[in-house]
Amino acid sequence: MRKLKRQLLAGPYILWMTGFILLPIAMVLYYAFTTTGGSFTLLNVSSIAFSVHFKALILSLKLALICTVICLILSYPLAMILNRMKTKSQGFIVFIFILPMWMNFMLRILAWRMLLSNNGIINSLLETLGLPMIDILNTPTAVVFCMVYDFLPFMILPIYNAMARIQPDIIEAAKDLGAGNATIFFKIIVPLTMSGVISGIIMVFVPALTSFAVSDLLGGGKVLLIGNVIEQAFMQEYNWNLGSGLSFVLMIFVIASMALMNSRGDETGAGVW
Amino acid sequence: MIRKSAERIYLFLIFLFLYLPIGVLIVLSFNNSKSKVLWGGFTLAWYKKLFSNSAIMEAFCTTIFISLASAAIATLLGVLAALGIDAMKKRGQTVMLGATNIPLLNADIVTGISMMLLFVRFTRLGMSTVLIAHITFNIPYVILNVLPKLKQSSRTAYEAALDLGATPLYAFRKIIWPQILPGILSGFLMAMTMSLDDFSVTYFTKGAGINTLSTIIYTEMRKGIRPEMYALSTILFLIALILLLFMNFGPTARKETRE
Amino acid sequence: MSKRLIDLQHITKSFDGDTILDDLNLYIRENEFLTLLGPSGCGKTTTLRIIGGFETPDQGTVVFDGKDITNLAPNQRQLNTVFQKYALFPHMSIAQNIAFGLKIRKKSKAYIDDKIKYALKLVNLEGFENRSIDSLSGGQQQRIAIARAIVNEPKVLLLDEPLGALDLKLRQDMQYELIRLKNELGITFIYVTHDQEEALTMSDTIVVMNQGYIQQIGTPQDIYNEPVNAFVADFIGESNIINGLMLNDRLVQILDVKFPCVDEGFGCNTPVDVVIRPEDVELVAPENGMLEGDVISLIFKGVHWEMEVLANGYEWLVQTTQMHPVGAHVGIRVDPFNIQIMNKPESNDERAVELNA
Questions:
Q1: Kind of pairing, strands C156-160 and C4-15?
Q2: Contacts of A16 in chain B (CB under 8 A)
């Protein structure tokens, strides 16, 4: 009886969740499969095959993939180094590498836009050194740069957490049984950090795939990602049905990529926070 | 020895990559020149200009209000929800946690759009819709911070209190509450940071005339970068830094996470 | 006597300025079951980790089979360890865990399969090959940890408090199994524990350690019957440890009463520690006792009664099969052979060791 009463405390949250999470998603589905008149259609969803939309989707997938791979390559050794530092200041050093995760997203974009601009620091530096200036602002390269910058901590944290959870005596046991450094790395450390790697991949790939602000501000309207297409459908063309249809496709890709990653590891999301 | 140096260099390079852009922003916010490169002497002019810009100041107040209010309401709902979920059977817990994960895992843009569709249908976009949206994506962070504490909190200590004659409410207040309080505080702080940081959801649910700092920076940046923005960034960076130092090394620090 | 397999010479080790081991010398014979026994912080685990190669001594050498292995990495040593918390690989099946060391040595698949079967049979877990680690109880995990170590045919098996996490019944069963295993395998066991009963049951040789120093080395019988100092006497089982004065050879004065004993060579009027095991104290009629006292507590322990008798200002711990009720007036007698005389600690070091114990 008492247990039942305590369960009721979740009531307000259940109502809230139904009203503001489930219902909105149902509305996206409703708009996605109807015309402006309200009759059923598949056109909104199938419009992803239009060359502009399709190109944007492919480019989004490509940039998100590149960004994820770069983050993974940078983070894994970093997490190992951080984990191996058994000093008193370890907590603080880890904190330093996680901190940018919580800094305002717009602020981070602003910083890169300033650095990469034609008369910005990087080009001035290159000029002083007598090197050719680079003109990467408003290109996909700039977008990837900024995405890596934005999402890197989201890869570092789960991998580091997974690594910190490995008991030192497991490593000692492997050594005791004759394992060299390479064997320990590939047979023990990599498999035991896989859950962290998968969390990291999801936490980088999904926002990279769906972002529209980075490409908007660093792509100068020349880098059109699927997020930009959706944003424009809503905010400029006021075509909610089309926007919802494309959002639905995007959701499918997000769910598919998570399912794909989850099938490769037992637990995800764990150890992220 | 060589490996150690290589490790240090690697750490340093990533550190530069992460902090150099911010560092440059901060330096430029004190630069008495519009140039992005040349140092024209120290000045606080951009800060003065920033504080005299009413649109930005209004956005600043809106941001603070939204993040505090949404974090507070989300904490209330989230703590109640965590208590309820904790009392549920395994199956109910799985369903509830699955639903709780939706806003965490779903793309921000979809969360924003879906709520916009709902709001436009039934009401008008404005401050309240932004607030509701922020509460919605904040609740999961509170639940995920409180629930583990609740699970860790000693069941036997609670039962011992009942055994010693405490009423359930009294036992909760004296035994459970102190144990979950750090989780509640860190949940509140995390919700606040998420709210301060949010752009996408705010962008779609804000309606005309309302701006948070994120959206105003976005609008301004599309026009071009003005040095006041550097000053604003510096202030935002410091706020985040203080909040995080408090969260990680303050009284609520979760020490058991690394061991 | 079989030959010395491991020789620890002048081993010194400190962590953060704390000296854990100070000039430790110890050898271990082939096929010996040697136990390092002592309270926590006595340096027994550090000694084991130095033998296993997980720590390098600050000074001194480790000789194994005639070769200096002081700086050899753990994966190059011909010995294997059973870890305190088992340290099984959580992401591998039982068979994969056991096969780990064999795969590194590039053994053939048939050989590995054979070995897994053999090892699981040896630890009484036949047919567990494909189970996951999580599905095992603590005792079963322990057996797998042992199986994983012994398939590599080490010359020495190091065991770091392997039974510490098990409950009493299981611990006693495992003690017999370890003895059986050792006899079947015919290899050297070096065992670390703080449990004196475990040490007495299983060992050929016990090394009692305290505060980084070896207190006594001997067979279980030696250690129990002839402890060299009060620390050892106190650590190995319950004892009456009383201040005494050695009046002459074969005569000691305890609590103002003269007791004949069998020890010689302590000199005249030398202060000593006297150890009398509780089961060696005889309770007789008051008039027949060497001293008289009153029973002040009585507990039934199953095989015997345990009493405390207050006599001449000392509370004697007594274990006998004869019951005397609380308040009874009794006489105390001790056979000369059952009185163990020990020198008082001489150096300050030794004294510190005792005070901290």
A1: unpaired
A2: 77, 135-136, 139
- For residues B107 and B10, state if they share a domain: no
Residue that the structure tokens 């951009």 belong to? B46
Q: Is residue A123 part of a domain?
A: yes
> What are the distances in angstroms from CA C355 to CA B143, C2, C196, C225, C272?
52, 38, 20, 23, 16
Q: How many CB atoms lie within 10 A of CB C210?
A: 24
For residues B11 and A42, what is the distance between their CA atoms, to the nearest angstrom?
Answer: 51
- Whether the pLDDT of residue C353 is over 90: the answer is no
C18-39 in b/e burial notation, b at 16+ Cβ within 10 A? eebbbebebebebbbbbbbbbe
DSSP category for residue C206: E
Same-fold call for C4-225 versus C230-356: no
With cut-offs at 50, 70 and 90, classify the pLDDT of residue A40: confident
Over the stretch A138-192, which tens digit does the pLDDT of each residue have?
888 889 988 999 899 889 989 999 998 888 889 999 999 988 889 999 999 999 9
Classify the C-alpha dihedral B127-B128-B131-B133 as positive or negative.
negative
- CA B238, CA C218: separation in Å to the nearest integer? 67
> Residues, chain C, total?
357
Does an H or E element contain B117, and which?
helix B108-122
Of A21, A230, A269, the CB nearest to B99: A21
C107-155 pLDDT tens trace: 999 999 999 999 999 888 999 989 988 889 888 998 999 999 999 889 9
Distances (CA, A) of C95 to C89, C102, C126, C128, C140: 11, 11, 11, 8, 14
Interface size, chain A vs chain B, as Cβ–Cβ contacts under 8 Å: 234
- The whole-number average pLDDT for the span C72-86 is 88
What share of chain C in percent tops pLDDT 70?
A: 96
Q: Do A12 and B77 touch (CB under 8 A)?
A: yes
Phi/psi of residue B207, nearest 5 degrees: 70, 170
Mean of the pLDDT values across residues A207-224?
Answer: 86
**Does the pLDDT at position B83 exceed 70?**
yes
Which subunits sit against C, judged by 3+ Cβ pairs under 8 A? A
What is C230-356's CATH number? 2.40.50.140
Within 13 Å and on the Cβ side, how many CA atoms surround C238? 11
Given this model, what pLDDT does residue C318 score? 93
Beta bridge partners of C82: C159
Distance CA C161, CA C180 (A): 18
Write b or e for each residue in C318-339: b if 16 or more Cβ atoms lie within 10 A of its Cβ, otherwise e: bbeeeebeeebebbbebeeebb
Look at residue B204 and tell me whether its pLDDT is greater than 80: yes
Alpha-carbon separation of residue B33 from A225, B226, B229, C109 (angstroms) = 36, 11, 14, 73
Of A122 and C218, the one with more pLDDT: C218
Return phi, psi of residue A228, to 5°.
-65, -40
Identify the DSSP state of C149. Answer: H
Q: How many CB atoms lie within 10 A of CB A62?
A: 13
- When divided into structural domains, chain B yields a total of 2
Contact residues, chain A, for B15 at CB < 8 Å: 96-97
Give the β-pairing of C79-82 and C156-160. parallel
Burial class from Cβ neighbours inside 10 Å (0-12, 13-18, 19+) for residue A29 reads middle
What confidence category does residue C347 fall into, taking pLDDT thresholds of 50, 70 and 90? low
Which helix (H) or strand (E) is C176 found in, with range? Answer: helix C168-185
Half-sphere exposure of A147 (CA within 13 A, CB side): 34
Residue A20: its chain B contacts at CB < 8 A?
A: 115, 118, 132-133, 136
* Predicted ipTM beyond 0.85: no
Domain count, chain A: 1
User: Is B31 in the same domain as B55?
Assistant: no
CATH 3.40.50.1820 is the classification of domain C4-225? no
